[in-house]
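Predict the 3D structure for this chain.
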Amino acid sequence: MYYPDSVVDEVRSRNDIVSVIGSYITLHKSSSNYVGLCPFHNEKTPSFNVNPARQIFHCFGCHKGGNVFTFVMEYENVCAVEMESADAKYKLGWCYDTGFGVVQSVETAFKLYKEAAEHFYRKLRSDEGRKGLEYLVGRALSAATMKSFGLGYSDGTLYDAVKGRYDDMLLKESGLFTFRETGGVRDKFFDRVMFPIFDQNGKVIAFGGRVMGDAKPKYLNSPESPIFDKSRNLYNLNRARRSRKGYFILCEGYMDVIALTQAGFDCAIATLGTALTEAQAKLISRYTNRVALTYDSDEAGQKAINRAIPMLHDVGVSAAVVDMRPFKDPDEFIKALGAEEYERRIANAKTSFAFEMQFIAAKYPNRADNPADRTAFAKEVANWMLRFRDRLERSNYIAAFCKTYGFDESEFREMVNEELQRAPAKRPAAEDSQTVPREHINADGVATQDFGRKRIEEENVMRSQNFLMTILASHPKARAVVRKYLAPEELAGSVYRDMARRCFEAPPEHVIDVAEAVSRYETVEEQELVTKMLASDEAERTEDIRRAVSDTLLKVLTRYADEEIARAKTAGDDEAVFRLTRKKAELRNLPMNLRREEF
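Done. Predicted structure below.
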């Protein structure tokens, strides 16, 4: 079902943002706000700010922001949020449109998946599931382990068990069944051992199935659905996040995770049929800053490790690579050598740096005798060094590489610096926070001074517009004055223009509810921009509002006039250029005109 705005606003108003966010991270009072370490990026100095008066949060480091719903949805990494305060009148389940014109509650989808898991669980322990049970026993899994992971078996009778109690549109969208064009429905999983997949909160959101016969594919996973995004979930995270090991073991498959957990490694997780994604790396970083990579020892597994390491590094997670030779995967290793030896291998795991250098070096086996190979090896590593945002960190890795592989450090540093100059778009974010447009790059591949000036000008305009928005939202009298001199079209950016219209259309004495305003925008980018423009308390700290408004209006209107004049010149409209230039000159009277206004 859909929820009207009034219900959404009611639930939001009854869930205080400080209490909700404070249940996830540690917050400390700072003046009238609360601050803490941002859960969305790696930082040591708190830049995460929660404003109880406006019921919004904003990180001045990574720029994420929004209201209480935005936070929970981003933190929990789910497409459905259920929130309920102790005295809340409503329980809000965010809904989705199935695409067939029928809207179903996500809560109902969770109920269906829970019932499916229970059905498969019972079947494994029945006569129909005997071969599935024998297969799992043959893989050395105990009854307690099978129960703990909710393992089951599908004999193709799930649809018969649930039909009539759920809408067929929901069943079709769930990914559990195949609806034939000629009529008839069959279970998507048949004659398979079933592995329920839980989200980090312990709700069943999908399944993996291992076939018992020779059918293909051997492993079949649920398709993505409104409650399952395989790129944003990890197998067994619901249990591993409670581990006291202090690190995660990242595997490739279900059986590896289950075998490791049974052996006492309760921190094992796995990707869901895909290589590690950026969203999964961010999810890992919320619970630990150390990961032991135990991908398969084959070529594909080694390449997957190389893709995973930089993703983990970018979110502040250090990775080490476990050597499982001569065995292919953790399941085989544990069965052959046991948990104690595996623990020793983890303790002696290679650093990600050592692993990646060896991986690159293997491409140049003749580098010791072939100057061309040695040069190519150094250039590839120099390019690899560009991933490090922090100069000191990059410098330390340069020194370590040169010492290990016998390169002259000063010459190699010069090579790295040349790569930085040659590829400005690859420069670390700390040195160049945004990609330089092609027209602002000179023949040497270096950003021009013109680009630096333009970027500073744009930042100043945005800062002015942000301040103006806080005035429009929180000072009704000032809003009435600004409306006389500024049209929304004169602001830069569609979200700014739209927000200005909302403020101008508000009742005369109405203070804009910032948290409510955030809810009116659909995309994460829009919500973060609205939060950023309204998060500043500069307006509250400004003693002379009249002068501040005057200065800000002058900057915004001058920018708009300059852009209009430039467009008129490009079009060759001399009359428009003359008219706009005269109008721009009249802006000098703005401070004097504003003195007569009532603030």
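Residues 545-571 form the longest helix (27 residues).
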